[in-house]
Amino acid sequence: MFYDATYHPVLEDYDTKGKLSPAALLKALENAGNQQSDYIGDGVFSSNRKKGLAWVLTDWQIWVSRYPAYGAPIKIRTWQRTAKVPLRICRDYLLEDGGEGYAVRAVSRWVLLDKETQRIVRPSEDLIRLYAPEPESALPESTYEKLQEPKAYSMETPISLRRSDIDFNAHVHNLCYLDFAIEGLPLDVYEEHDFREIHILYKSAVRFGESILCKYAREEAGNMVGIYGNDGSLRSLVALR
Asked: pLDDT band for position 157 (50/70/90)?
């Protein structure tokens, strides 16, 4: 089942050039997926959640042809893809802004978690049937890359969490990790950025009361930021290219 959503940006969604910011782009995609889940009865506060099940995001892969300009209409088509791996679900996205072709193509990957046992479980056939998966993919499988932790970093930036970073799951919301990574960039990289590929790998949740450290590495393929907890464990890797 394809689901079409319209995103209505607000002023804070745009950068100094009048373009949709990377963080706002990620928010638009996430909201489109949430809208479909709500529409079919599998929203955040649905019966599945009451059964102790929760969808957990494992990674984002976003390819940007252009960032929508201020005032451009933003239409997003999203769908759950037919599963090739039983325990992992892919959600695809195509974003149009009135220009030629698609402005953005993206894939997010999810697993279903039993919150009591903290084990990944296979989605039921009834749950999958709600989404009526489609075989199409927004991005070729050949573009998928499992991010690897850099061998060395050149810069570190401590980040203090805010109460507003915490979501309904009582941990830092997934959108915030991109914000943290951007804060961890060198100033010249941030000022000159025009990231055409954003890849976020989520390893372990950050909860309120923790402190985090963003570590930056410049690699041949682009910029990499590792986000670490106060125990030194890797929580997320973010590639910005």
From this structure: very high
Whether residue 41 is predicted with pLDDT greater than 80 in this model: the reply is yes
Q: Which of 201, 167, 207, 171 is nearest to 45 (CA)?
A: 167
Residue 174 region by backbone torsions, left for phi larger than 0, else alpha for psi between -120 and 50, else beta? alpha
CB 192 within 8 A of CB 211: no
Domains and CATH numbers, the chain: 3-143 (3.10.129.10), 155-240 (3.10.129.10)
Rounded CA-CA distance 161/218 in Å is 25
Two structure tokens written together for 144: 């998928």
> Which residues does residue 146 pair with via DSSP β-bridges, in sequence order?
none
- Write the DSSP string, 155-204: EEEEEE--GGGB-TTSSB-TTHHHHHHHHTS-HHHHHT---SEEEEEE-S
The 10 Å Cβ neighbour count of residue 192 is: 9
Q: Is the dihedral of CA 219, 59, 30, 207 positive or negative?
A: negative
The SS3 of residue 29 is helix
pTM beyond 0.85: yes
Q: Which of 191, 187, 196, 180 has the alpha carbon at shortest distance from 236? A: 180
User: Would you place residue 48 in the very low, low, confident or very high pLDDT band (cuts 50, 70, 90)?
Assistant: low
In sequence order, the β-bridge partners of residue 53 are 114
- C-alpha span between 132 and 134 (Å, rounded): 7
Q: pLDDT for 164-202, tens place per residue?
A: 888 877 789 999 999 999 999 999 999 888 899 999 999
Quick one: pLDDT band at residue 62, thresholds 50, 70, 90?
Answer: very high
